[in-house]
Amino acid sequence: MVLVFYGLLGWLVPSRPWLVAHLAFIPGLIAVWYVNRGVCPLNNLEARLLTGTWHDPSNVEEGGFLRAIVIRYLKVEPSQAQMDTITYAIMGFVWLLSWAHLALLN
User: Does residue 18 lie in a domain region?
Assistant: First the structure.
């Protein structure tokens, strides 16, 4: 959850090094998800420790953590494609906010 909070709120930190790290973190996170077929490596690590395999098909949150949260707490069932669109839009928005905040620090 620390990574999620940093991804969402890292642009608020009034520190040049933290903002630069946030600017690198967001595209890096997207690249990791893309290479890992939409699954967070932390889910894979958890599956590896609990089941001995890198992917756990019985884990409904694998590849759909945010979707599972929305379903559980908002009682809405968006498709995975809708969740991906929303997630990447939010990530793009906070990335732009980091650029803006960094520009204002100069």
Answer: no
Best CA proximity match to 7, nearest among 97, 72, 74, 82: 97
Tell me, yes or no, whether 85 lies in a domain: no
Domain containing 63 equals 43-79
Token reading at 73: 């707490």
Q: pLDDT band at 60, cuts 50/70/90?
A: low
**Would residue 55 count as lying in a domain?**
yes
* Alpha helices, H only, the chain: 2-9, 16-35, 41-51, 65-74, 80-105
pLDDT tens-digit readout, 15-37: 999 999 999 999 999 998 888 87
Radius of gyration from C-alpha coordinates of the chain = 15
Predicted structure pTM score: 0.78
Residue 64 lies in a domain: yes
Residue type, 105: L
Tokens coding 93: 């928005």
Domain count, the chain: 1
